[in-house]
Design brief:
Blueprint lengths: L1 H13 L6 E9 L5 E7 L4 H10 L7 E5 L6 E5 L13 E2 L2 H17 L1 H9 L5 H9 L1
Antiparallel strand pairs: 1-2, 3-4, 3-5
Length: about 140
């Protein structure tokens, strides 16, 4: 669930126009009449990541559960591709129980680890999935 969440967040971030910016800083007027406002890229800004975390778990209904035939390990895989290409869905269980439990797990992780997710993703940290999903949680 954590890995699916990070995959979705990283995909959403990659879809933002790199030229889009947001104003950050204080909107107070300094004694000299200037303002301490800075334009930063919108993608990976705290405002952008907070907004994504509020709606990313809705994407979990596009996932199914796949059991590895050799190891019997369960994993969540996308059943709808982002670009509309056909996907190999052999051995993928896709039903309401799977998607609702995945969505619940996603919401729990997003809520409990919101600060870490924002911290890692705002700095384009490498291996966010491993660092967050294996070590931190």
């Amino acid at each position: 669930a954590c890995r699916a969440l990070v995959d979705e967040l990283e995909w959403e971030i990659s879809q933002v126009d790199p030229r889009k910016t947001i104003q950050m800083g204080s909107f107070r007027i300094n004694p000299d009449g200037s303002q301490s406002v800075v334009e930063v890229p919108y993608a990976r800004s705290e405002a952008h990541l907070t907004e994504l975390l509020e709606r990313v778990c809705e994407k979990m209904k596009e996932y199914g559960e796949k059991v590895d035939p050799a190891t019997h390990r369960k994993s969540y895989v996308r059943v709808l591709s982002h670009d509309g290409t056909k996907m190999d869905l052999s051995g993928v269980k896709f039903d309401g129980d799977v998607t609702s439990s995945l969505k619940f797990a996603c919401e729990s992780i997003a809520e409990e680890y919101e600060d870490e997710l924002i911290e890692f993703l705002s700095h384009e940290a490498e291996n966010v999935k491993d660092r967050l999903c294996s070590k931190r949680t």
